[in-house]
Amino acid sequence: MSGEARLEMLTRIHRAAAGPKLEIERPPIPASTRPRAEIVAQFAEYAAEYRAEVHRASEADLPVLLAALLSGQNVLVPEGFPAQLFPQPATHKPQTTHADLAAYDAVLTTCAVAIAETGTVVLDHGAGQGRRALTLIPDWHVCVVRSEQVVDSVPEAVAALQEAVLAGRPLTWISGPSATSDIELSRVEGVHGPRRLSIIVVD
Amino acid sequence: MSAGGIRPARPFPEAARDTLQDAQMRRNLKHATTTIREKRLRAVAELPDWEALRTRGAELKDASLSDLAEQLLTLEAAVKRCGGQVHWARDAAEACRIVTDLAALHGAREIIKVKSISTDEIELNAALEQRGIQAIETDLAELIVQLAGDTPSHILVPAIHKNRAEIRDLFRQKLGAELLTDEPKVLAEAARLYLREKFLSTKVAVSGANFAIAESGTVCIVESEGNGRMCLTLPDVLISVMGIEKVLPQWADIAPFMQLLPRSSTAERMNPYTSFWSGVIPGDGPQEFHLVLLDNGRTDVLADEAARQTLRCIRCSACLNVCPVYERAGGHAYGSVYPGPIGAILTPQLLQLEDENANTLPWASSLCGACYDACPVKINIPEILIYLRGQITPHKSHNLENTVESIAMKTAAWIFNEPFRFEGALKLARTGQGPLVQHGAIHALPGLLGGWTSSRNLPAFPAKSFRELWREEGEV
């Protein structure tokens, strides 16, 4: 069907790009030299600046914190989320429809990587993170970030995510709750995505 | 219907004369551009290697463009490997046909859209409407523009020309929303309620693409509101229209762009949401994915070595926000979905310099160079503006062999060519200006020259020229 268009576009490109192919070097990303504590602290600070609610907890305190934070809420927990941290029976079924998802108050997930330079958490939708709709439709996303998952810079995060991407996994980068500045540039939270984002940094 | 397209209905000077009268728009724009400008400087200053990053961004884009056919073939193979389908579209009509055929094939009466300039470029919404399919814009600003039957005026904040009261009236009228105030929060809530239902019930979505990674077949959408995520994950079918220049060879190449783009566009460290996906992901999101690769004049830009760097553009809109001409004339004056400095070079090129109205755009600039300084991929916009003027002028003057202007220019060239002629002309002007000078300036020149003084004064010629003073000092 589009074989003709394909051939013509490729011909046009070949004719257009008469010059030599430019080679580009991709040197390895130098590892960050900043102390871990500083990197993690910056991540927490920047995530909070984007109006995420940031909590810090020790491994031991985490179940208590989660229980307190989510008490009385109808919480969705994706498959693979460590059950010892949040012992509420997992309510998620793979067949859950989009409309069903809207009935949950909150969703509780882990993440793949977090970025200090920008205050971003990245989901690769592996175990504990759920398919993409899970963290999108409920109005409150609670995300557990282990301090060793925090990297200093965007290039480090990109390197860390290489394997997931090459395996065909989707990624969602999240920096603060959904926001718009379309009306007179006033920032409004949560036009479409979750209006509330809580990040729990576990040391 | 929000239309768009890239063919300006009028020449820039004429369109700008009208938009300049719109005081409301100028106030909104000035506020917006000044705010973003200041924020951007702060965001950029946080990255100590900003200049190196810009260079890296430019190099990566150039490298990919130098090998574009190979990159697109790699991308195509990877997308197919991941269960997606790839379509090639030579022009706007072909791209529209591909998308509308796909939507019709799924029996769609409505489709939801993520804000995308490439689909505005090809005027997809109008094409869908002709087939009885309604396109619903889900970005808040695009929705506002669409409901108003207006066109976007800024790449990033398309409804920047509208204020909250106008938006409230629009939502009352078109969405039947009962709005007690015009607080942005309340207005956003009204849009949320209206669109939530669309997200959950619509089967086909259309998006653009910010980047695509050839090696993995990964497509990327950068956004703030979450409407993108909704469209990319909830429907059964996803169709993404992507300009062929958006491809990057390897996954690692995305890193500098994820640093450059948010800081340059919204002046944030990072935008709230970025989605990456490769083809179809079993059990997650749309189970049918189509990638439409759009040429529509891009290969002509690629063929022009002097202006090829235009294709590095990542649509961040930093150049708009720093441009004195854009700030005053507004986006609509450019008559294209690509306004501002980047629009002034991209629009006429996409139209092969054959559109008379688009060909006025390279003059819509003071050549101050602010756009070049702001561009995260170092597109030398002023240089290309001048280059395009040079390309367009021979066409224009072709039929104007002996106009007053061309005779005047030839005479001027003859005078400037010899120092004694130039000095003679100055003396003549000094003697001749007598009756015209008032308080050291000439306020109105006679005849055709009056055009110069219609909006400014001409300082009177001094009693002695620099050369005369120099000679008097005995230096010869």
Automatic annotation (TrEMBL), chain A:
InterPro entries: FTHF_cligase-like_sf, LUD_dom, NagB/RpiA_transferase-like
Pfam families in the record: LUD_dom
Domain LUD residues, every copy: 96-202
Gene3D superfamilies, alphabetized: NagB/RpiA/CoA transferase-like
Top-level taxon in the UniProt lineage: Bacteria
Protein name: Lactate utilization protein C
Organism: Deinococcus psychrotolerans
